[in-house]
Specification:
The protein is an alpha/beta fold. It has ten helices and seven strands. The strands form two sheets. The protein has a five-stranded parallel β-sheet with strand order 2-1-3-4-5. Strand 1, helix 3 and strand 2 form a beta-alpha-beta unit. The relative contact order is 0.18.
């Protein structure tokens, strides 16, 4: 049964992350906690389906202020599969060197910030632009993706470096290079990718570790509360406080 085969593949990746990546997750979380404690930002960037862990992380119930999603619409919007802003344009744009630098011009950064990038392969130019510019501005660069599987792949950037080679901390999502994991009898290509599940798993393992570090230091977290629980009369107020704090901190962005 292919449904169970996909489920096993996804579970195996999650277990592999637990068995091999805890030290690096902790290293990444320490850097992020330092930025948030300083009332600075952990900036989030990815392209294509690598924006999904960003959208999952913030804003959402159980997330907290300190994470700044940078999602460039032409690099993520897949509702128009063909026509305007389609898959073809996306595939072209993520390989255009210099585009990432232009995206970075839209925001103000600080050396106390972190840049957290998501990329399965780590070879496309836009992500590498963002990483190089982040390092130039003094930020720590944290990269999540299939690092071991990307070993030996040629960068599509003139620097000839991959995203994983530029990172201060790498968390390997342990996903096969092909991503799709379930074979079919009558087709060459597999179905059932697991990279999104791996990204989201690594995200919440990291964010909960950041929260643990800050909580133990006595740092107040502005957490997005669920406003759908009957009897919780202050949920909306807590959510409003979190959004107000995000607005205050983001004034300088």
């Amino acid at each position: 049964m292919l449904a169970k085969e996909w489920l096993k593949n996804a579970k195996d990746v999650m277990i592999d992350i637990e068995n091999t990546q805890m030290d690096n997750i902790r290293k990444a979380a320490v850097l992020m906690a330092g930025s948030i404690e300083a009332e600075r930002w952990v900036h989030l960037f990815g392209c294509g389906h690598a924006t999904l862990p960003i959208e999952e992380m913030y804003p959402r119930i159980g997330g907290f202020v300190g994470f700044h999603p940078i999602i460039e619409l032409p690099l993520t919007f897949f509702t128009n599969i063909v026509g305007g802003m389609s898959v073809q344009q996306f595939v072209f744009l993520e390989r255009v060197e210099g585009y990432g630098l232009e995206i970075m011009k839209g925001w103000n950064f600080d050396a106390r910030d972190c840049m957290w990038l998501f990329s399965h392969t780590g070879i496309n130019a836009v992500n590498i632009d963002v990483a190089l510019e982040s390092k130039r501005q003094g930020m720590k660069v944290i990269v999540y993706g299939s690092a071991a599987e990307a070993s030996g792949k040629k960068s599509r950037h003139s620097s000839e470096r991959t995203l994983f080679e530029l990172a201060d901390v790498v968390v390997d999502t342990r996903v096969p290079a092909n991503d799709a994991s379930v074979p079919l009898k009558n087709h060459f290509d597999k179905v059932g990718p697991v990279s999104t599940m791996a990204f989201v798993t690594a995200v919440w393992m990291t964010v909960t570790t950041v929260a643990e570090i800050l909580d133990e230091k006595g740092v107040k977290l502005y957490i997005h509360s669920s406003h759908n629980i009957p009897g919780d009369t202050t949920a909306h107020d807590r959510l409003d406080q979190a959004l107000k704090e995000y607005k205050r901190r983001s004034a300088g962005l």
